[in-house]
Amino acid sequence: MATKVQPVSEVRDPVKRGDTDLNKPQTKLIIGGLLVSAVLLIYLIFTQNIVQPLLLIIGLLLGYTLFHARFGFTSAFRRIMSVGNGQALRAHMLMLAVAVTLFAPILAFGYSFFGDGVAGYVSPIGVSVFVGAFMFGIGMQLGGGCASGTLYAIGGGRSVMFITLLFFIVGATVGAAHLPFWTEDLPSYQPVSLATSTGLGYGGAWLVSIILFGLIAWITVRIEKNRRAPKMAPVPSTSGWKRIFRGSWPLFAAAIVLAVLNALTLMTRGAPWGITSAFALWGSKVAQVFGVDVAGWGYWQGANAVALNSSIFADTTTVLNFGVILGAFLASAAGGLFKFNKITGKNAAASVIGGLLMGYGARLAFGCNIGAYFGGIASFSLHGYIWGIMALGGTFIALYLRPIFGLSVPKPKDSFC
């Protein structure tokens, strides 16, 4: 086993048999989480349109699923790059396969639940995407989690992630201020959709996507065999219907649930799941309070200006983020796992640097592991694939940086998350 203890958001502990071996549910915390969720839901029902309370519910389910399965992007990239274990990356491929299967007809017909039309995340390809995704790859390995990982780790009580989130917001805000330089003054090309830019149509793009996911999954299997990669250790769980609420979910079950919930998000708000645009919004609103002319930034021109001048509760991404945090909190309390942990100087420094890199990188790359990687690939955008490749490159570099901050790196002999 590894000699260093990793946080619950990243570790899959040795399995314990039987429900009695699991931590007892933290009943008071569960009740508190449900009350906060109910109050927020009622507030949204009476102050916002119907989309917002529905998105809060979806966000709760996303957060519950992420924490319950310990479904990670940061650790998945780190495992394949460090010891060659591709189990989690294959779960990503299943998630993406289900997502493109659901997204294809939704995008092809262009209808949402409320008749406002739908649009996937198909973004331009340029220097900003390459640099931003590479920065994000380094940042998530230092910060201890990606965008979704940061939110669900906060919901689970991992103290240092509050620092990561704070500087994630700072980085996203600065990135929003600098974005015109990266997209207008440096080389940038039009968005490329496998469906609409190639003549394949959504049917052809779906087939190509499925083949690519299968190929990537096969490559990870070959890497595992060649490198004799260690297997992931399971987390404590139970059996039967109780497993829905307590214990861990299999990664592949969570992959399917996340894909379905992303499709529901697309049908509800007309766009896929995203996270980091809300961070730029929060930071920009705070900057406004201190007299910064945020409205003059190129990023906040056009359609984005509406969000800047409205309540954060009118922002769909913000509501989803709140839901993810609350959902993860409920999942951690149900498993008896919510607990604040100690912050050290080294991991705090790593969180500051990681958060800044992720926030800035996400804005440059038109999204994070959710908006660009998950949402982009599910929307048949070429930039999503580029994001994944560059983030893997950043992860490789970060493997040499993590020990400087006292962060562990999986070794071939380890049983790990």
UniProtKB/TrEMBL annotation:
Q: Does the keyword Transmembrane helix apply?
A: yes
**What residues form the membrane-spanning segments?**
29-46, 52-73, 94-114, 120-139, 160-182, 202-223, 244-264, 319-338, 350-374, 380-401
Its membrane topology is listed as: Multi-pass membrane protein
Q: Which InterPro entries match?
A: Sulf_transp_TsuA/YedE
* Subcellular location, record wording: Cell inner membrane
- Has the keyword S-adenosyl-L-methionine been applied to this entry? no
Q: Which UniProt keywords apply?
A: Cell inner membrane, Cell membrane, Membrane, Transmembrane, Transmembrane helix, Transport
The main location is: membrane
Q: Which family does it belong to?
A: Belongs to the TsuA/YedE (TC 9.B.102) family.
- Mind telling me what this protein is named? YeeE/YedE family protein
Give the organism the record lists: Virgibacillus kekensis
